[in-house]
């Protein structure tokens, strides 16, 4: 991984430090685990990042050379940040939390961060900060869609179910019983899982789902059933229990709330995104439910194409603030947020 800020560039940049423990006022268990020293500025120049198309690389390069100007949502102030690639993280379903861990500079594991984010959501959901009817409907739309609708947008729709790890042998026995009386394996599995597993359809079940990291310590396994308009397509039974819950927009907003920061998800689409270089980059904002007291963090969302909205993998971005007058001039920024 290459060093970013060398020579005269150090005069223009300084890293965004993790929150100072003395100024961390809410009851996060991470408050005592932030370094009070500025971290070493390290990362990759965009020219060294693999897997980018030319159009993507040209757009992302501007984040390091011209920066992003962020305006504080409640104060008449703004800052210029330069963004660089923070390195790869595992593609194991925990990438939102692995990438956020790097971007925040915290020294807890991604599994611990995942649990803390779920706990933040639970507390705020129970306190009414998440409108329950609207939130539950959004969760239902994502994880238990109405299979009578939505086919004008999606060729394949997916239902997520939660199976207790301790019940997997019982579920398998029930599936085999149905196979013995003439049902196909997939039809039998669909019947058993849909009758006896937990639907992800509200805040309570979302929290159970989002706790799943693909570890043997998880309480539940994820079952994914895929449908086309003609009916059942495939079932991912996840027999080894390694599937993790991919971080969604609700998780990102809970993460933003926990750390009192705005989180921007950066998408840079390639030639398959049907956009030119000037219009291929997007910053998707996620605001905390409460005051913003810390600088924002940025995550890169990688994808395989436009139709997937890029929602395949998160990677961290290293954020450096401009400190010299020349570097911080408003006209320098490539993007204004």
From TrEMBL:
Ranges where the OTU domain occurs: 84-320
Sequence segments annotated as region (Disordered): 16-38
N-terminal signal peptide: none
Listed Polar residues bias regions: 22-38
InterPro entries linked: OTU_dom
PANTHER family in alphabetical order: OS01G0102500 PROTEIN (PTHR36068:SF1)
Protein name per the record: OTU domain-containing protein
């Amino acid at each position: 991984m290459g060093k970013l800020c060398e020579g005269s560039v150090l005069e223009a940049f300084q890293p965004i430090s993790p929150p100072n423990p003395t100024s961390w006022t809410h009851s996060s268990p991470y408050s005592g685990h932030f370094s009070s020293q500025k971290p070493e500025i390290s990362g990759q120049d965009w020219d060294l990042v693999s897997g980018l198309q030319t159009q993507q690389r040209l757009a992302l390069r501007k984040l390091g050379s011209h920066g992003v100007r962020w305006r504080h949502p409640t104060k008449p102030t703004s800052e210029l940040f330069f963004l660089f690639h923070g390195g790869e993280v595992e593609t194991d379903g925990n990438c939102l939390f692995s990438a956020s861990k790097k971007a925040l500079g915290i020294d807890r594991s991604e599994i611990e961060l995942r649990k803390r984010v779920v706990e933040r959501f639970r507390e705020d959901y129970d306190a009414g900060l998440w409108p329950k009817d609207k939130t539950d409907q959004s969760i239902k739309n994502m994880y238990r869609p109405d299979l009578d609708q939505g086919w004008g947008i999606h060729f394949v729709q997916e239902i997520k179910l939660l199976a207790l790890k301790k019940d997997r042998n019982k579920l398998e026995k029930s599936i085999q019983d149905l196979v013995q009386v003439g049902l196909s394996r997939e039809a039998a599995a669909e019947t058993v899982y849909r009758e006896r597993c937990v639907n992800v359809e509200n805040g309570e079940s979302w929290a159970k789902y989002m706790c799943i990291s693909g570890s043997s310590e998880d309480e539940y396994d994820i079952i994914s059933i895929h449908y086309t308009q003609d009916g059942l397509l495939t079932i991912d039974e996840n027999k080894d229990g390694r599937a993790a819950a991919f971080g969604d927009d609700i998780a990102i907003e809970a993460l933003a709330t926990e750390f009192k920061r705005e989180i921007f998800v950066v998408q840079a689409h390639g030639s398959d995104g049907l956009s030119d270089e000037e219009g291929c980059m997007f910053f998707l904002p996620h605001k905390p439910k409460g005051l913003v007291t810390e600088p924002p963090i940025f995550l890169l969302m990688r994808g395989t194409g436009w139709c997937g909205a890029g929602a395949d993998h998160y990677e961290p971005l290293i954020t450096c603030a401009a400190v010299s007058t020349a570097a911080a001039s408003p006209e320098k920024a490539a993007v204004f947020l």
